[in-house]
Amino acid sequence: MTAERLTAAQPLRIADARKGIRHVFIRDLMVTCCIGVHRHEEIRPQRLRLNLDLAVREEQALGDDLANVVCYERIADGVRSTVAGRHIRLLETLADEIAAICLADERVRSVRVRIEKLDIFADATSVGVEIERFAD
């Protein structure tokens, strides 16, 4: 193992005062949904762990007003709604849908979505996908 090898636990450096960027994140959001390409995955819900990192443009004084920030509760509710009551074949599809939820707020400049299936292999903690998307 080399010193340059990255670990999964390294924190992201997104916040940047010079560029007026705030880092909004959700860590280890646990949801259950039917996801996967195999027949048994269509009927047996699986546990997923999601991590979201958003680069958010700081445009105005906050004024201690929720309307002036990106609401992580609204994003988490959107994720829960997206996975509820349907079967999704690919983690990549779900990641793109979650990225679109985050980017719907015009203050969000970019989003990184990491999704992990937790119960796939007995000899692995998780499998998954990570994507990054940018606002137009």
List the helices and strands and how they pair.
Layout: E1 21-35, H1 39-43, E2 46-57, H2 72-83, E3 87-88, H3 91-103, E4 108-117, E5 127-134
Parallel strand pairs: 1-3
Antiparallel strand pairs: 1-2, 2-4, 4-5
Helix pairs in contact: 2-3
Short description:
With 136 residues, the chain is an alpha+beta fold. Helix content is 22%, strand content 35%. The protein has a single domain (17-134), classed as GTP Cyclohydrolase I, domain 2.
Account of the 3D structure:
With 136 residues, the chain is of the alpha+beta class. It has one domain (17-134): GTP cyclohydrolase I, C-terminal domain/NADPH-dependent 7-cyano-7-deazaguanine reductase, N-terminal domain (GTP Cyclohydrolase I, domain 2). Helices cover 22% and strands 35% of the residues. The protein is built from 3 helices and 5 strands. It has helices at residues 39-43, 72-83, 91-103, and strands at 21-35, 46-57, 87-88, 108-117, 127-134. A 5-stranded mixed beta sheet has the order 3-1-2-4-5. The longest helix has 13 residues, at 91-103. It is elongated. The termini are far apart. The mean pLDDT is 90.
